[in-house]
Amino acid sequence: MSEPNKFAHRAINDTLLNRESWKIFQIMAEFTEGFEQLSQIKPSVSIFGSSRTQPGHPHYQLAEDIARALSDAGFAVVSGGGPGIMEAVNKGAYEGKSPSVGLNILLPHEQTANAYQDISLNFRHFFSRKVMFVKYASAYVILPGGFGTLDELAEILTLIQTGKTRRIPVILVHSPFWQGLLEWLKNTLVPEGMIAAEDLELFKLLDNVQDVVDAIFNHYEYHGVGPQADDRGILL
């Protein structure tokens, strides 16, 4: 490589390194703002579902009703802040008694912030956004969705299974949608030894609004919704 080309190559590498270094500060800023804003919303429930579900669809109405019930029951409600079921969740919570929180992600298409957010945070990075979904949640509710919803579900179950986060309610909503997945887990992953049979007890499958609310309250019947001493160690 000629001497001028060496200098040009080094300059390009330095520019790329500077850009990567600045990303560290972007990530730090996302974590700092998230911690500051969300540490005050406890207890909260994180709800996931498709961004493509349209208003008027039964899943949209179900999401709105669940969020409203949880909000009126005293839980801040957290969604991904976008359209579809995320919008339904924020709308239901916004009309309830507790804060409606949107954790928005900046994407080249599909994601636009909905108008029903008392607290709205914007993220460039999926992983820092995921931390915010998990860190302050007292329960997770998962409605029908696509790859993003499945990603969040798998992440939550992995964290609980491996002891990296505390065991709290994980509720799948709408049996017809999830039944095929649950049969595959039971009939394929368990016999193959990929998961243990007791891992199927990490979540519940429910269908109506009151059952979701009752399942969360029943879990916390004998202790507060805040993390216990052992839980705080895990979360740290």
Annotation keywords:
236 residues, alpha/beta
Could you say which overall geometry the principal axes of the C-alpha atoms support?
Answer: globular
Which series of helices and strands comes N to C? HEHEHEEHEHEHEHH
Per CATH, the architecture is 3-Layer(aba) Sandwich
Q: What is the CATH C level class, in words?
A: Alpha Beta
Q: State which percent range the strand residues make up.
A: 5-15%
Uncertain spans = none
| Widest beta sheet: strand line-up | 4-3-2-1-5-6-7
Radius of gyration from the CA trace? 20 Å
Largest sheet report: 7 strands, parallel
Binned, the helix content reads 40-55%
Class based on secondary structure composition and strand pairing: alpha/beta
Number of strands: 7
Average pLDDT number: 88
Alpha carbon gap, first and last residue = 49 Å
CATH fold topology? Rossmann fold
Tally of contiguous helical segments: 8
Number of domains: 1
Kindly describe this structure.
This protein is of the alpha/beta class and 236 residues long. It has a single domain, classed as Rossmann fold (3-Layer(aba) Sandwich), CATH 3.40.50.450. Helix content is 50%, strand content 14%. It is built from 8 helices and 7 strands. It has helices at residues 3-38, 58-72, 85-94, 126-135, 147-161, 175-189, 209-219, 229-235, and strands spanning 44-48, 76-79, 100-105, 119-123, 137-142, 170-173, 204-206. Strands 4-3-2-1-5-6-7 form a 7-stranded parallel sheet, with helices on both faces. Strand 2, helix 3 (85-94) and strand 3 (100-105) form a beta-alpha-beta unit. The termini are far apart.
